[in-house]
Each structure stands twice: as structure tokens, then as C-alpha cells.
UniProtKB/TrEMBL annotation:
Coiled coil: none annotated. Keywords: Hydrolase, Protein phosphatase. Belongs to the low molecular weight phosphotyrosine protein phosphatase family. Residues 4-168 form the Phosphotyrosine protein phosphatase I domain. Its EC number is 3.1.3.48. The keyword Hydrolase applies. The active site is at 10 (nucleophile), 16, 142 (proton donor). One of its GO terms (molecular function) is protein tyrosine phosphatase activity. InterPro entries: LMW_PTPase (IPR050438), Ptyr_pPase (IPR023485), Ptyr_pPase_sf (IPR036196), Tyr_phospatase_low_mol_wt (IPR017867). This is protein-tyrosine-phosphatase.
Length: 175
């Protein structure tokens, strides 16, 4: 049985990428695909290695039924580019940092999460809120130094993009 391995990546691995990991695991379980997709997350930075996700991210996620409490921060390594089929970054800065660690032959594995948010209705909530605050919705914007609203936008975006990602993976998972 074919499996796909995905690692979500942000800066600290305590806000955005654990949120994406929690949402993805939940949606895969709902779709009965949990045994077909390996999901992990990591940060490009090393400040939060071993830490649980940010309390604000955990709380916002819990309100929507996602449990982030078991995740612990870790930093991406060159070996991750061998282990994972897709390395999915939250923003352009993460992509640039990933390229510094990535073996040249594996560069095509690096993608942006919001590329997968193809369902206009589902992505609209996050997109509209981000456009209103002057951000480009092709990125999942760092909520760390902002208020609670940022964590809701991150969740909206992760839900929309993970739905699109599962749809994009389905053809290879049914092989
Ligand atoms: P994340 O958010 O990359 O979504 O986990 C951040 C977490 C920590 C910091 C920055 C962003 N920091 O500067 O410590």
C-alpha cells in the first residue's frame, strides 16, 4: 500500500506548522486515510526545540476540535528531505530557509501550503481577513507577535489548504 510522507514547516514549529499538522491529521482520520499519509512538522529555527505548541495556538485549535498538545518543537534537518515526499512551508521566508538546508536534488519537494487552497469558498475566510489586514493570502502569516485573530486566520487557512492537499493526494493514494 502506497503512503505519502508530509512535513509542514514554519519558523518556530510552535504556531503554524503544528496547527497544519493537527488539522491534517484530523481531516485524514475523517477521510479514513490516516494510515496512508505520514504527517509531521518542524521549524527552520531552533528556539523552540522540545517545546509544546504556543498556548494560543493550542487553545484556538482545541476550540475547533484539534488537539495539538502532544506535539513538540523540532528543527528541520537535511535528512528530512530524504524521509519526506513533500516539505510544505507556511511562507516565503520558510522556503528561503529550507533551500539553505535542502540537498539540491530534493528542491522540488518544497512547496507553499496555500498553493493547495484551491477551493475558493473554503479559503475565502482566511483570504479575506488577510487581505483586509494587508497580507498576501498565498502565505500563512506568522501570528506569534499578534493578537488572537491571527490564530483564527491560521486555522482557516490550514483547514482550506489541507482539504485541497488531501484532494490533490487522493489519485496517488488510490493506486
Ligand atoms: P511559528 O511562529 O513559526 O508559526 O511557529 C513563531 C514562533 C516563534 C517565533 C516566531 C514565530 N519566535 O520568534 O520565537
Amino acid at each position: 500500500m502506497k503512503t505519502v510522507a508530509i512535513c509542514f514547516v514554519c519558523l518556530g514549529n510552535i504556531c503554524r506548522s503544528p496547527t497544519a499538522e493537527g488539522v491534517m491529521r484530523h481531516l485524514l482520520a475523517e477521510a479514513r486515510l490516516a494510515d496512508r499519509v505520514i504527517v509531521d512538522s518542524a521549524g527552520t529555527g531552533d528556539w523552540h526545540i522540545g517545546e509544546a505548541p504556543d498556548e494560543r495556538a493550542q487553545c484556538a485549535a482545541k476550540n475547533r476540535g484539534y488537539d495539538l498538545s502532544i506535539f513538540r518543537g523540532r528543527q528541520i534537518t537535511a535528512a528530512d528531505f530524504e524521509s519526506f515526499d513533500l516539505i510544505i512551508a507556511m511562507d516565503d521566508k520558510n522556503v528561503a530557509a529550507l533551500r539553505q538546508v535542502c540537498p539540491p536534488a530534493q528542491r522540488d519537494k518544497i512547496r507553499l501550503l496555500m498553493e493547495f487552497a484551491t477551493d475558493a469558498a473554503a479559503s475565502d475566510a482566511g483570504g479575506a481577513a488577510q487581505r483586509a489586514s494587508g497580507f498576501d493570502s498565498r502565505e500563512v502569516v506568522d501570528p506569534y507577535f499578534g493578537g488572537g485573530e491571527g490564530f483564527e486566520i491560521v486555522l482557516d487557512q490550514c483547514e482550506a489548504a489541507c482539504r485541497g492537499l488531501i484532494a490533490a493526494l487522493r489519485p496517488q493514494l488510490t493506486l
